[in-house]
Design goal:
The chain is an alpha+beta fold. Among the domains are: 81 residues; 311 residues, Beta-lactamase, CATH 3.40.710. It has 22 helices and 22 strands. Strands 2, 3, 4, 5 and 10 form a five-stranded mixed β-sheet that branches. The protein has a five-stranded antiparallel β-sheet with strand order 15-14-22-21-20, sandwiched between helices. Strands 1-8-9 form a three-stranded antiparallel β-sheet, with no helix packed on it. A hairpin with a 5-residue loop joins β12 and β13. α13 crosses α16 and α13 packs antiparallel against α20. It is elongated, with a radius of gyration of 37 Å.
Length: 640
Protein backbone atom coordinates (compact mmCIF):
# COMPACT_ATOMS: atom_id res chain seq x y z
CA UNK A 1 0.00 0.00 0.00
CA UNK A 2 1.36 3.36 -1.10
CA UNK A 3 1.99 5.91 1.54
CA UNK A 4 1.04 9.55 1.20
CA UNK A 5 4.50 10.56 0.02
CA UNK A 6 4.49 8.15 -2.87
CA UNK A 7 1.02 9.20 -3.95
CA UNK A 8 2.04 12.84 -3.88
CA UNK A 9 5.14 12.09 -5.97
CA UNK A 10 3.13 10.15 -8.55
CA UNK A 11 0.67 13.03 -8.89
CA UNK A 12 3.51 15.49 -9.37
CA UNK A 13 5.19 13.30 -12.02
CA UNK A 14 1.85 12.78 -13.78
CA UNK A 15 1.14 16.51 -13.98
CA UNK A 16 4.63 17.22 -15.26
CA UNK A 17 4.31 14.47 -17.88
CA UNK A 18 1.01 15.85 -19.09
CA UNK A 19 2.46 19.38 -19.20
CA UNK A 20 5.54 18.24 -21.11
CA UNK A 21 3.36 16.19 -23.48
CA UNK A 22 1.18 19.21 -24.17
CA UNK A 23 4.24 21.41 -24.62
CA UNK A 24 5.81 18.90 -26.98
CA UNK A 25 2.58 18.57 -28.94
CA UNK A 26 2.26 22.33 -29.23
CA UNK A 27 5.81 22.69 -30.48
CA UNK A 28 5.42 19.88 -32.99
CA UNK A 29 2.07 21.29 -34.11
CA UNK A 30 3.52 24.78 -34.53
CA UNK A 31 6.45 23.45 -36.53
CA UNK A 32 4.13 21.32 -38.63
CA UNK A 33 1.81 24.23 -39.33
CA UNK A 34 4.74 26.47 -40.23
CA UNK A 35 6.06 23.87 -42.65
CA UNK A 36 2.61 23.59 -44.18
CA UNK A 37 2.38 27.39 -44.38
CA UNK A 38 5.80 27.74 -45.99
CA UNK A 39 5.31 24.93 -48.51
CA UNK A 40 1.71 25.49 -49.49
CA UNK A 41 0.11 28.69 -48.20
CA UNK A 42 3.00 31.13 -48.65
CA UNK A 43 4.89 29.21 -51.30
CA UNK A 44 4.45 31.98 -53.99
CA UNK A 45 5.53 34.73 -51.62
CA UNK A 46 8.78 33.03 -50.73
CA UNK A 47 9.37 31.85 -54.25
CA UNK A 48 9.51 35.54 -55.20
CA UNK A 49 11.98 36.22 -52.41
CA UNK A 50 14.23 33.25 -53.06
CA UNK A 51 17.87 33.87 -53.82
CA UNK A 52 17.46 32.42 -57.30
CA UNK A 53 14.87 35.06 -58.27
CA UNK A 54 15.96 38.33 -59.84
CA UNK A 55 14.69 41.82 -60.55
CA UNK A 56 14.91 43.02 -64.16
CA UNK A 57 14.48 46.74 -64.82
CA UNK A 58 13.08 47.75 -68.19
CA UNK A 59 13.34 51.31 -69.48
CA UNK A 60 10.08 53.02 -70.47
CA UNK A 61 10.61 55.74 -73.11
CA UNK A 62 8.79 59.02 -72.44
CA UNK A 63 6.69 60.81 -75.04
CA UNK A 64 9.03 62.89 -77.16
CA UNK A 65 8.53 66.66 -77.28
CA UNK A 66 7.13 68.34 -80.38
CA UNK A 67 8.90 70.61 -82.87
CA UNK A 68 6.79 73.64 -83.84
CA UNK A 69 7.26 76.55 -86.22
CA UNK A 70 7.01 80.23 -85.26
CA UNK A 71 3.22 80.12 -85.59
CA UNK A 72 2.87 76.86 -83.64
CA UNK A 73 2.41 74.68 -86.73
CA UNK A 74 3.53 71.09 -86.14
CA UNK A 75 6.83 70.05 -87.71
CA UNK A 76 7.45 66.90 -85.67
CA UNK A 77 5.05 65.06 -83.38
CA UNK A 78 3.98 61.63 -82.19
CA UNK A 79 1.37 59.19 -83.43
CA UNK A 80 0.05 56.05 -81.79
CA UNK A 81 1.66 52.91 -83.12
CA UNK A 82 1.10 49.22 -82.39
CA UNK A 83 3.63 46.47 -81.85
CA UNK A 84 3.25 42.72 -82.07
CA UNK A 85 5.13 40.75 -79.40
CA UNK A 86 5.70 37.01 -78.96
CA UNK A 87 5.70 35.64 -75.41
CA UNK A 88 8.50 33.28 -76.28
CA UNK A 89 9.67 30.09 -74.62
CA UNK A 90 11.90 27.29 -75.89
CA UNK A 91 9.00 24.88 -76.47
CA UNK A 92 7.20 27.07 -79.02
CA UNK A 93 7.16 26.25 -82.73
CA UNK A 94 8.10 29.77 -83.76
CA UNK A 95 8.13 29.13 -87.50
CA UNK A 96 4.61 27.76 -87.40
CA UNK A 97 3.36 30.76 -85.42
CA UNK A 98 4.90 33.27 -87.83
CA UNK A 99 3.45 31.37 -90.77
CA UNK A 100 -0.05 31.49 -89.26
CA UNK A 101 0.28 35.20 -88.55
CA UNK A 102 1.49 35.86 -92.11
CA UNK A 103 -1.66 34.22 -93.45
CA UNK A 104 -3.72 36.90 -91.67
CA UNK A 105 -1.63 40.07 -92.02
CA UNK A 106 1.35 41.08 -94.14
CA UNK A 107 4.58 41.02 -92.16
CA UNK A 108 7.53 43.00 -93.44
CA UNK A 109 10.32 40.66 -94.56
CA UNK A 110 12.89 42.77 -92.74
CA UNK A 111 10.89 42.48 -89.49
CA UNK A 112 10.75 38.69 -89.86
CA UNK A 113 14.51 38.46 -90.43
CA UNK A 114 15.21 40.65 -87.39
CA UNK A 115 12.83 38.57 -85.28
CA UNK A 116 14.52 35.26 -86.10
CA UNK A 117 17.92 36.84 -85.51
CA UNK A 118 16.81 37.72 -82.00
CA UNK A 119 15.65 34.14 -81.45
CA UNK A 120 18.98 32.73 -82.63
CA UNK A 121 20.95 35.03 -80.36
CA UNK A 122 19.12 34.15 -77.16
CA UNK A 123 21.76 33.37 -74.53
CA UNK A 124 19.45 31.32 -72.34
CA UNK A 125 16.14 29.47 -72.54
CA UNK A 126 14.25 31.75 -70.17
CA UNK A 127 10.80 32.84 -71.26
CA UNK A 128 10.69 36.42 -72.50
CA UNK A 129 8.89 38.86 -74.75
CA UNK A 130 10.39 39.30 -78.23
CA UNK A 131 9.28 41.97 -80.68
CA UNK A 132 7.94 40.68 -84.01
CA UNK A 133 7.08 44.05 -85.57
CA UNK A 134 6.34 47.59 -84.44
CA UNK A 135 4.57 48.51 -87.67
CA UNK A 136 1.08 47.17 -87.04
CA UNK A 137 -1.84 49.18 -88.35
CA UNK A 138 -5.15 49.46 -86.51
CA UNK A 139 -6.59 47.14 -89.12
CA UNK A 140 -3.86 44.53 -88.49
CA UNK A 141 -4.53 44.65 -84.75
CA UNK A 142 -8.25 44.08 -85.36
CA UNK A 143 -7.63 41.11 -87.64
CA UNK A 144 -5.40 39.39 -85.11
CA UNK A 145 -7.49 40.33 -82.08
CA UNK A 146 -10.64 38.60 -83.34
CA UNK A 147 -8.62 35.39 -83.71
CA UNK A 148 -6.61 35.81 -80.52
CA UNK A 149 -7.73 32.39 -79.25
CA UNK A 150 -5.57 30.87 -81.99
CA UNK A 151 -2.54 32.86 -80.80
CA UNK A 152 -2.26 32.65 -77.01
CA UNK A 153 1.49 33.31 -77.38
CA UNK A 154 1.20 36.80 -78.89
CA UNK A 155 0.29 40.15 -77.36
CA UNK A 156 0.01 43.76 -78.48
CA UNK A 157 1.56 46.90 -77.11
CA UNK A 158 1.01 50.55 -77.93
CA UNK A 159 3.88 52.91 -78.61
CA UNK A 160 4.48 56.34 -80.10
CA UNK A 161 5.85 56.76 -83.61
CA UNK A 162 7.55 59.98 -84.75
CA UNK A 163 5.75 61.77 -87.60
CA UNK A 164 6.70 64.80 -89.68
CA UNK A 165 3.57 66.43 -91.16
CA UNK A 166 5.61 68.88 -93.27
CA UNK A 167 7.59 66.02 -94.80
CA UNK A 168 10.18 67.01 -97.39
CA UNK A 169 9.50 70.74 -96.95
CA UNK A 170 11.42 70.93 -93.66
CA UNK A 171 13.30 67.62 -93.59
CA UNK A 172 16.80 69.11 -93.35
CA UNK A 173 15.83 71.30 -90.40
CA UNK A 174 13.73 68.86 -88.37
CA UNK A 175 16.04 65.95 -89.09
CA UNK A 176 14.77 62.58 -87.87
CA UNK A 177 15.03 60.04 -85.08
CA UNK A 178 16.33 56.49 -85.11
CA UNK A 179 17.02 53.59 -82.74
CA UNK A 180 19.63 54.08 -80.05
CA UNK A 181 22.65 51.98 -81.02
CA UNK A 182 25.70 51.16 -78.95
CA UNK A 183 27.50 47.86 -79.45
CA UNK A 184 28.95 48.08 -75.94
CA UNK A 185 25.53 48.08 -74.29
CA UNK A 186 23.66 44.78 -74.25
CA UNK A 187 20.39 46.04 -72.71
CA UNK A 188 17.78 45.14 -75.35
CA UNK A 189 15.29 47.68 -74.02
CA UNK A 190 17.75 50.48 -74.87
CA UNK A 191 17.71 49.41 -78.51
CA UNK A 192 14.00 50.29 -78.66
CA UNK A 193 14.65 53.92 -77.68
CA UNK A 194 14.44 56.54 -80.42
CA UNK A 195 17.05 59.31 -80.37
CA UNK A 196 17.71 62.30 -82.62
CA UNK A 197 19.95 61.51 -85.59
CA UNK A 198 19.99 64.76 -87.57
CA UNK A 199 18.77 68.35 -87.53
CA UNK A 200 16.79 69.83 -84.63
CA UNK A 201 15.98 66.30 -83.45
CA UNK A 202 19.68 65.69 -82.81
CA UNK A 203 20.65 69.13 -81.52
CA UNK A 204 17.85 69.24 -78.94
CA UNK A 205 17.72 65.50 -78.34
CA UNK A 206 18.06 65.69 -74.55
CA UNK A 207 15.29 68.30 -74.17
CA UNK A 208 12.98 66.57 -76.65
CA UNK A 209 13.60 63.12 -75.20
CA UNK A 210 12.36 63.82 -71.68
CA UNK A 211 13.11 61.56 -68.72
CA UNK A 212 12.79 57.79 -68.91
CA UNK A 213 10.68 55.72 -66.59
CA UNK A 214 11.45 52.20 -65.38
CA UNK A 215 9.38 49.06 -64.97
CA UNK A 216 10.52 46.41 -62.50
CA UNK A 217 9.89 42.81 -63.50
CA UNK A 218 10.36 40.05 -60.91
CA UNK A 219 11.26 36.76 -62.54
CA UNK A 220 11.91 33.27 -61.30
CA UNK A 221 15.09 31.35 -61.88
CA UNK A 222 13.30 29.77 -64.85
CA UNK A 223 12.68 33.14 -66.43
CA UNK A 224 8.94 33.41 -65.69
CA UNK A 225 7.72 36.92 -64.87
CA UNK A 226 5.80 36.72 -61.59
CA UNK A 227 5.29 40.41 -60.94
CA UNK A 228 5.58 43.64 -62.93
CA UNK A 229 5.13 47.20 -61.79
CA UNK A 230 6.13 50.76 -62.66
CA UNK A 231 9.18 51.66 -60.63
CA UNK A 232 9.73 55.21 -61.94
CA UNK A 233 7.29 57.30 -64.01
CA UNK A 234 8.28 58.99 -67.27
CA UNK A 235 8.45 62.74 -67.84
CA UNK A 236 7.52 63.87 -71.36
CA UNK A 237 10.03 65.83 -73.43
CA UNK A 238 9.90 69.58 -73.88
CA UNK A 239 8.61 71.22 -77.06
CA UNK A 240 11.01 73.19 -79.26
CA UNK A 241 9.72 76.16 -81.25
CA UNK A 242 11.84 77.02 -84.28
CA UNK A 243 11.84 80.36 -86.08
CA UNK A 244 10.79 78.95 -89.46
CA UNK A 245 7.51 80.00 -91.04
CA UNK A 246 6.10 76.94 -92.79
CA UNK A 247 3.93 78.96 -95.15
CA UNK A 248 6.99 80.85 -96.38
CA UNK A 249 9.07 77.65 -96.37
CA UNK A 250 6.58 75.83 -98.60
CA UNK A 251 6.46 78.74 -101.04
CA UNK A 252 10.25 79.02 -101.13
CA UNK A 253 10.70 75.29 -101.84
CA UNK A 254 8.32 75.45 -104.79
CA UNK A 255 9.81 78.70 -106.14
CA UNK A 256 13.43 77.56 -105.90
CA UNK A 257 12.76 74.21 -107.57
CA UNK A 258 10.77 75.87 -110.36
CA UNK A 259 13.46 78.43 -111.18
CA UNK A 260 12.72 79.60 -114.74
CA UNK A 261 11.15 76.28 -115.68
CA UNK A 262 7.55 75.58 -116.64
CA UNK A 263 5.35 73.02 -114.91
CA UNK A 264 3.48 70.67 -117.30
CA UNK A 265 1.25 67.61 -116.95
CA UNK A 266 2.70 64.17 -117.64
CA UNK A 267 -0.48 63.37 -119.60
CA UNK A 268 0.83 65.42 -122.51
CA UNK A 269 1.73 62.99 -125.30
CA UNK A 270 5.10 64.61 -126.13
CA UNK A 271 6.00 64.76 -122.45
CA UNK A 272 5.13 61.09 -121.96
CA UNK A 273 7.42 60.18 -124.82
CA UNK A 274 10.30 62.15 -123.33
CA UNK A 275 9.80 60.64 -119.87
CA UNK A 276 9.89 57.10 -121.28
CA UNK A 277 13.43 57.73 -122.58
CA UNK A 278 14.77 59.27 -119.38
CA UNK A 279 16.41 57.14 -116.69
CA UNK A 280 15.60 59.29 -113.66
CA UNK A 281 13.18 62.16 -113.46
CA UNK A 282 11.58 63.82 -110.44
CA UNK A 283 7.80 64.20 -110.58
CA UNK A 284 5.98 67.07 -108.92
CA UNK A 285 2.91 65.84 -107.02
CA UNK A 286 3.17 62.64 -109.10
CA UNK A 287 1.38 64.25 -112.06
CA UNK A 288 3.69 67.02 -113.26
CA UNK A 289 7.24 67.60 -114.45
CA UNK A 290 9.33 70.65 -115.29
CA UNK A 291 10.38 71.63 -118.81
CA UNK A 292 12.99 74.22 -119.80
CA UNK A 293 12.79 76.90 -122.50
CA UNK A 294 13.56 74.28 -125.12
CA UNK A 295 10.57 72.22 -123.98
CA UNK A 296 12.80 69.46 -122.65
CA UNK A 297 11.86 67.62 -119.45
CA UNK A 298 14.27 68.50 -116.63
CA UNK A 299 14.64 67.84 -112.93
CA UNK A 300 13.76 70.59 -110.43
CA UNK A 301 16.46 73.14 -109.68
CA UNK A 302 18.73 72.29 -106.78
CA UNK A 303 20.30 74.73 -104.36
CA UNK A 304 19.52 76.80 -101.29
CA UNK A 305 17.27 79.67 -100.21
CA UNK A 306 17.45 81.35 -96.79
CA UNK A 307 15.46 84.25 -95.36
CA UNK A 308 16.72 85.91 -92.16
CA UNK A 309 15.50 88.74 -89.95
CA UNK A 310 18.22 91.43 -90.12
CA UNK A 311 17.42 92.70 -86.61
CA UNK A 312 17.30 89.56 -84.46
CA UNK A 313 18.91 86.91 -86.68
CA UNK A 314 15.91 84.57 -86.73
CA UNK A 315 15.83 82.32 -89.79
CA UNK A 316 12.33 82.35 -91.27
CA UNK A 317 13.10 80.04 -94.13
CA UNK A 318 15.87 77.55 -94.85
CA UNK A 319 15.44 75.52 -98.02
CA UNK A 320 17.83 72.91 -99.33
CA UNK A 321 16.85 71.22 -102.57
CA UNK A 322 16.59 68.39 -103.28
CA UNK A 323 15.30 67.41 -99.87
CA UNK A 324 14.24 64.17 -98.21
CA UNK A 325 11.17 63.03 -96.34
CA UNK A 326 12.12 62.30 -92.70
CA UNK A 327 9.05 60.06 -92.34
CA UNK A 328 10.87 57.26 -94.19
CA UNK A 329 13.25 57.00 -91.21
CA UNK A 330 10.42 56.79 -88.66
CA UNK A 331 9.45 53.40 -89.95
CA UNK A 332 11.85 50.63 -90.84
CA UNK A 333 13.61 52.05 -93.88
CA UNK A 334 13.14 49.94 -96.99
CA UNK A 335 16.23 49.07 -99.01
CA UNK A 336 14.89 50.69 -102.19
CA UNK A 337 14.05 53.91 -100.29
CA UNK A 338 17.56 54.13 -98.88
CA UNK A 339 19.09 53.38 -102.29
CA UNK A 340 17.05 56.18 -103.88
CA UNK A 341 18.36 58.64 -101.31
CA UNK A 342 21.95 57.39 -101.15
CA UNK A 343 22.50 57.02 -104.90
CA UNK A 344 20.86 60.29 -105.91
CA UNK A 345 23.61 62.28 -107.66
CA UNK A 346 22.21 65.54 -106.28
CA UNK A 347 22.76 64.43 -102.66
CA UNK A 348 19.35 65.04 -101.02
CA UNK A 349 20.77 64.39 -97.52
CA UNK A 350 23.14 67.37 -97.79
CA UNK A 351 21.82 70.45 -95.99
CA UNK A 352 23.02 72.92 -98.61
CA UNK A 353 21.90 75.98 -96.65
CA UNK A 354 24.13 75.21 -93.67
CA UNK A 355 26.73 72.73 -94.91
CA UNK A 356 26.92 73.37 -98.65
CA UNK A 357 30.00 75.37 -99.69
CA UNK A 358 30.17 77.44 -102.87
CA UNK A 359 32.39 80.11 -104.40
CA UNK A 360 30.33 83.24 -103.70
CA UNK A 361 31.21 85.03 -106.93
CA UNK A 362 30.27 88.70 -107.19
CA UNK A 363 28.01 88.56 -104.12
CA UNK A 364 31.05 89.42 -101.95
CA UNK A 365 32.12 92.51 -103.87
CA UNK A 366 30.56 94.65 -101.12
CA UNK A 367 33.08 93.17 -98.65
CA UNK A 368 36.00 93.99 -100.96
CA UNK A 369 34.66 97.54 -101.39
CA UNK A 370 34.26 98.01 -97.62
CA UNK A 371 37.82 96.75 -97.02
CA UNK A 372 39.09 99.40 -99.42
CA UNK A 373 36.94 102.21 -97.97
CA UNK A 374 37.77 101.33 -94.35
CA UNK A 375 41.49 101.27 -95.22
CA UNK A 376 41.28 104.72 -96.84
CA UNK A 377 42.75 103.32 -100.06
CA UNK A 378 39.93 104.72 -102.21
CA UNK A 379 36.99 107.08 -101.82
CA UNK A 380 33.52 107.11 -103.35
CA UNK A 381 34.76 108.90 -106.49
CA UNK A 382 37.77 106.72 -107.28
CA UNK A 383 37.55 105.34 -110.82
CA UNK A 384 39.14 102.50 -112.77
CA UNK A 385 38.91 101.79 -116.48
CA UNK A 386 37.53 98.44 -117.71
CA UNK A 387 38.29 97.32 -121.27
CA UNK A 388 37.08 93.76 -120.67
CA UNK A 389 40.22 92.23 -119.15
CA UNK A 390 43.15 92.74 -116.80
CA UNK A 391 46.70 91.67 -117.65
CA UNK A 392 48.89 90.38 -114.82
CA UNK A 393 52.24 88.91 -115.81
CA UNK A 394 51.57 86.31 -118.47
CA UNK A 395 47.95 85.79 -117.37
CA UNK A 396 44.78 87.51 -118.51
CA UNK A 397 41.83 87.93 -116.13
CA UNK A 398 38.57 88.62 -117.92
CA UNK A 399 35.51 90.66 -117.04
CA UNK A 400 32.09 89.11 -117.61
CA UNK A 401 31.44 91.96 -120.08
CA UNK A 402 33.58 91.03 -123.08
CA UNK A 403 33.91 94.63 -124.35
CA UNK A 404 34.32 96.11 -120.88
CA UNK A 405 32.43 98.76 -118.90
CA UNK A 406 34.58 101.82 -119.55
CA UNK A 407 35.47 104.29 -116.79
CA UNK A 408 33.61 103.47 -113.55
CA UNK A 409 33.41 104.66 -109.96
CA UNK A 410 32.72 102.33 -107.03
CA UNK A 411 28.92 102.65 -107.06
CA UNK A 412 28.77 102.01 -110.80
CA UNK A 413 31.14 99.05 -110.44
CA UNK A 414 28.83 97.40 -107.88
CA UNK A 415 25.72 98.26 -109.91
CA UNK A 416 27.16 96.70 -113.06
CA UNK A 417 29.28 94.08 -111.25
CA UNK A 418 32.46 95.04 -113.12
CA UNK A 419 35.17 92.42 -112.53
CA UNK A 420 38.08 94.55 -113.76
CA UNK A 421 37.28 97.31 -111.26
CA UNK A 422 37.48 94.77 -108.42
CA UNK A 423 40.67 93.26 -109.83
CA UNK A 424 42.25 96.69 -109.48
CA UNK A 425 40.69 97.19 -106.06
CA UNK A 426 41.90 93.82 -104.81
CA UNK A 427 45.49 94.54 -105.83
CA UNK A 428 45.44 97.85 -103.97
CA UNK A 429 43.82 96.49 -100.78
CA UNK A 430 45.56 93.12 -100.54
CA UNK A 431 44.14 89.74 -99.56
CA UNK A 432 44.80 90.09 -95.81
CA UNK A 433 42.64 93.21 -95.42
CA UNK A 434 39.95 91.68 -97.62
CA UNK A 435 39.94 88.55 -95.43
CA UNK A 436 39.59 90.63 -92.25
CA UNK A 437 36.52 92.43 -93.65
CA UNK A 438 34.95 89.20 -94.89
CA UNK A 439 35.25 87.66 -91.44
CA UNK A 440 33.85 90.81 -89.84
CA UNK A 441 30.81 90.40 -92.10
CA UNK A 442 30.40 86.76 -91.09
CA UNK A 443 32.21 84.69 -93.70
CA UNK A 444 34.59 81.84 -92.95
CA UNK A 445 33.23 80.94 -89.51
CA UNK A 446 30.78 78.78 -87.60
CA UNK A 447 27.78 80.26 -85.82
CA UNK A 448 25.95 79.04 -82.75
CA UNK A 449 22.97 78.20 -84.94
CA UNK A 450 21.09 75.24 -83.44
CA UNK A 451 22.05 72.51 -85.86
CA UNK A 452 25.08 70.25 -86.24
CA UNK A 453 25.05 70.09 -90.05
CA UNK A 454 27.09 73.17 -90.90
CA UNK A 455 30.34 74.08 -92.62
CA UNK A 456 32.92 76.77 -91.98
CA UNK A 457 33.89 77.58 -95.56
CA UNK A 458 37.22 79.16 -96.46
CA UNK A 459 38.37 82.78 -96.28
CA UNK A 460 41.98 82.57 -97.49
CA UNK A 461 44.89 84.87 -96.72
CA UNK A 462 48.69 84.77 -96.98
CA UNK A 463 49.19 82.86 -93.73
CA UNK A 464 46.41 80.35 -94.57
CA UNK A 465 48.03 79.30 -97.85
CA UNK A 466 51.51 79.12 -96.37
CA UNK A 467 50.25 76.93 -93.53
CA UNK A 468 48.17 74.68 -95.76
CA UNK A 469 50.39 74.32 -98.86
CA UNK A 470 53.74 75.70 -97.74
CA UNK A 471 53.54 78.15 -100.65
CA UNK A 472 53.50 81.92 -100.96
CA UNK A 473 50.37 83.77 -101.96
CA UNK A 474 50.29 85.13 -105.52
CA UNK A 475 48.74 88.32 -106.87
CA UNK A 476 46.70 86.28 -109.33
CA UNK A 477 45.04 84.57 -106.38
CA UNK A 478 44.17 88.01 -104.99
CA UNK A 479 42.43 88.84 -108.26
CA UNK A 480 40.39 85.63 -108.11
CA UNK A 481 39.44 86.24 -104.48
CA UNK A 482 38.38 89.82 -105.30
CA UNK A 483 35.52 88.52 -107.46
CA UNK A 484 34.60 85.63 -105.17
CA UNK A 485 36.45 82.80 -106.94
CA UNK A 486 39.63 80.82 -106.31
CA UNK A 487 40.09 79.41 -102.82
CA UNK A 488 37.18 81.39 -101.37
CA UNK A 489 34.24 79.21 -100.26
CA UNK A 490 31.12 80.27 -98.37
CA UNK A 491 27.86 78.75 -97.21
CA UNK A 492 24.45 80.24 -98.04
CA UNK A 493 24.01 80.82 -94.29
CA UNK A 494 27.16 82.96 -94.23
CA UNK A 495 26.00 84.96 -97.26
CA UNK A 496 22.63 85.80 -95.73
CA UNK A 497 24.42 86.76 -92.49
CA UNK A 498 26.76 89.06 -94.42
CA UNK A 499 23.84 90.86 -96.05
CA UNK A 500 21.97 91.05 -92.73
CA UNK A 501 24.95 92.80 -91.11
CA UNK A 502 25.22 95.26 -93.99
CA UNK A 503 21.47 95.95 -93.87
CA UNK A 504 21.49 96.28 -90.07
CA UNK A 505 24.60 98.50 -90.25
CA UNK A 506 25.02 98.61 -86.47
CA UNK A 507 25.26 95.10 -85.02
CA UNK A 508 27.03 91.88 -86.02
CA UNK A 509 23.77 89.93 -86.22
CA UNK A 510 24.13 86.12 -85.91
CA UNK A 511 21.65 83.54 -87.20
CA UNK A 512 19.32 81.50 -85.00
CA UNK A 513 16.89 78.67 -85.72
CA UNK A 514 14.79 78.93 -82.55
CA UNK A 515 12.34 81.47 -81.20
CA UNK A 516 13.39 83.46 -78.15
CA UNK A 517 11.36 85.77 -75.93
CA UNK A 518 14.52 87.59 -74.81
CA UNK A 519 16.00 90.54 -76.67
CA UNK A 520 19.15 89.28 -78.33
CA UNK A 521 22.37 91.20 -77.83
CA UNK A 522 24.95 91.30 -80.59
CA UNK A 523 28.40 92.82 -80.77
CA UNK A 524 28.89 96.15 -82.50
CA UNK A 525 29.70 95.78 -86.20
CA UNK A 526 32.34 98.55 -85.99
CA UNK A 527 32.22 99.56 -89.64
CA UNK A 528 31.84 103.19 -90.67
CA UNK A 529 28.10 103.82 -91.07
CA UNK A 530 28.68 106.24 -93.95
CA UNK A 531 30.55 103.54 -95.83
CA UNK A 532 27.77 101.04 -95.12
CA UNK A 533 25.11 103.48 -96.32
CA UNK A 534 27.08 104.02 -99.52
CA UNK A 535 27.29 100.26 -100.11
CA UNK A 536 23.56 99.91 -99.43
CA UNK A 537 22.85 102.64 -101.98
CA UNK A 538 24.98 100.78 -104.53
CA UNK A 539 23.07 97.54 -103.80
CA UNK A 540 19.84 99.45 -104.39
CA UNK A 541 21.21 100.56 -107.78
CA UNK A 542 21.77 96.89 -108.69
CA UNK A 543 17.98 96.53 -108.72
CA UNK A 544 16.61 99.96 -109.65
CA UNK A 545 19.57 101.46 -111.55
CA UNK A 546 19.48 101.87 -115.32
CA UNK A 547 22.42 99.50 -115.73
CA UNK A 548 21.83 97.31 -112.67
CA UNK A 549 22.40 93.59 -113.18
CA UNK A 550 19.01 92.81 -111.53
CA UNK A 551 17.11 95.77 -113.05
CA UNK A 552 14.52 93.52 -114.70
CA UNK A 553 13.41 92.05 -111.37
CA UNK A 554 12.25 94.97 -109.27
CA UNK A 555 9.53 94.35 -106.71
CA UNK A 556 7.82 97.39 -108.18
CA UNK A 557 5.99 98.58 -105.05
CA UNK A 558 5.95 102.28 -104.09
CA UNK A 559 6.65 101.44 -100.44
CA UNK A 560 8.76 98.29 -100.71
CA UNK A 561 11.74 97.62 -102.94
CA UNK A 562 14.71 95.31 -102.57
CA UNK A 563 18.43 95.95 -102.80
CA UNK A 564 20.92 93.22 -103.62
CA UNK A 565 23.84 91.80 -105.52
CA UNK A 566 23.91 89.18 -108.26
CA UNK A 567 26.58 86.54 -108.70
CA UNK A 568 27.45 84.08 -111.46
CA UNK A 569 30.09 81.51 -110.55
CA UNK A 570 32.10 79.49 -113.05
CA UNK A 571 32.45 75.85 -112.00
CA UNK A 572 34.70 74.93 -114.95
CA UNK A 573 37.71 76.96 -116.10
CA UNK A 574 37.24 78.52 -119.53
CA UNK A 575 40.29 78.29 -121.78
CA UNK A 576 41.47 81.06 -124.12
CA UNK A 577 40.66 78.84 -127.09
CA UNK A 578 37.08 78.46 -125.89
CA UNK A 579 36.79 82.23 -125.48
CA UNK A 580 38.05 82.83 -129.02
CA UNK A 581 35.61 80.30 -130.45
CA UNK A 582 32.74 81.87 -128.52
CA UNK A 583 31.35 80.83 -125.16
CA UNK A 584 28.66 78.18 -125.12
CA UNK A 585 25.47 79.34 -123.44
CA UNK A 586 24.73 77.84 -120.03
CA UNK A 587 21.57 76.09 -121.19
CA UNK A 588 23.53 74.35 -123.96
CA UNK A 589 26.12 72.88 -121.61
CA UNK A 590 25.80 69.65 -119.61
CA UNK A 591 24.14 70.41 -116.24
CA UNK A 592 27.34 69.82 -114.25
CA UNK A 593 29.30 72.32 -116.37
CA UNK A 594 26.85 75.20 -116.01
CA UNK A 595 27.56 78.22 -113.81
CA UNK A 596 26.05 78.59 -110.34
CA UNK A 597 23.49 81.39 -110.06
CA UNK A 598 23.47 83.51 -106.87
CA UNK A 599 21.68 86.51 -105.44
CA UNK A 600 21.87 88.16 -102.03
CA UNK A 601 19.69 91.05 -100.93
CA UNK A 602 17.44 92.70 -98.38
CA UNK A 603 14.10 94.54 -98.22
CA UNK A 604 12.61 97.04 -97.73
CA UNK A 605 15.33 99.42 -98.88
CA UNK A 606 14.30 102.27 -96.56
CA UNK A 607 13.86 100.21 -93.42
CA UNK A 608 15.55 96.80 -93.88
CA UNK A 609 13.75 93.91 -92.22
CA UNK A 610 14.62 90.70 -94.07
CA UNK A 611 17.70 89.43 -95.90
CA UNK A 612 17.80 86.65 -98.47
CA UNK A 613 20.42 84.45 -100.09
CA UNK A 614 19.65 82.35 -103.15
CA UNK A 615 21.99 79.75 -104.65
CA UNK A 616 20.84 77.81 -107.71
CA UNK A 617 23.31 75.05 -108.47
CA UNK A 618 24.30 75.08 -112.15
CA UNK A 619 21.42 77.46 -112.69
CA UNK A 620 23.24 79.78 -115.08
CA UNK A 621 23.04 83.52 -114.57
CA UNK A 622 22.54 85.04 -111.14
CA UNK A 623 20.73 88.02 -112.65
CA UNK A 624 18.22 86.04 -114.71
CA UNK A 625 17.71 82.95 -112.49
CA UNK A 626 18.46 83.75 -108.82
CA UNK A 627 17.28 87.40 -108.72
CA UNK A 628 13.65 86.69 -109.79
CA UNK A 629 13.42 83.96 -107.14
CA UNK A 630 14.49 86.45 -104.44
CA UNK A 631 12.04 89.04 -105.74
CA UNK A 632 9.12 86.60 -105.58
CA UNK A 633 10.05 85.51 -102.05
CA UNK A 634 10.04 89.15 -100.89
CA UNK A 635 6.70 89.73 -102.60
CA UNK A 636 5.31 86.72 -100.76
CA UNK A 637 6.74 87.96 -97.46
CA UNK A 638 5.19 91.40 -97.84
CA UNK A 639 1.98 90.04 -99.40
CA UNK A 640 2.44 92.00 -102.63
Amino acid sequence: MKNKGQKKLERTVSRRFIFLSLLKGSIIGTIGWRLFDLQLVENRKYEKLSDDNQFNYRIIPPERGRILDRKMRLLAGNMDGFSLVLNWNKDLNVHQIIKKISNIIILNEKDIINFFNKIRHQKNNYSKKILITKNLSQKDVSKLAVRSIEFPEISFSMSKRRVYPQGIIAGHITGYTGPYSDKNIQNSSLNEIEVGKRGIEKYFDVQLRGEFGRKRNEVTSKGHVIDSQIYENTKPGLDVQVSLDMKLQAFAVERLERGNYELVSIRNRKIKKQISKLKKITFVNNNYVFINKKKKVVNPQSGSLIVMDVNNGEILCSVSSPGFDPNIFSRDLEVNEWDNVKNNLRSPLLNRSMAGVYPPGSTIKMAVALAALESGIIDYKTKFFCNGSKELGTSTFHCWAKDGHGNLNLMQAIEQSCDVFFYELGLKVGIDKIAVMMKKLGLGQYYNVQIHDKAKGVVPNIEWKLKRDGLNWSLGETLNASIGQGYLLTTPLQLVTMVSRIANSKFAVSPSLVMSSENKKFNELNINVEHLNFIKKAMEKVVVGTNGTARHYKIGSKNIEMAGKTGTVQVVRISEAEREQGLIKNEDRPWKRRDHALFVGYAPVLNPRYAVSVVVEHGGSGSSVAAPIARDVFKHLFKL
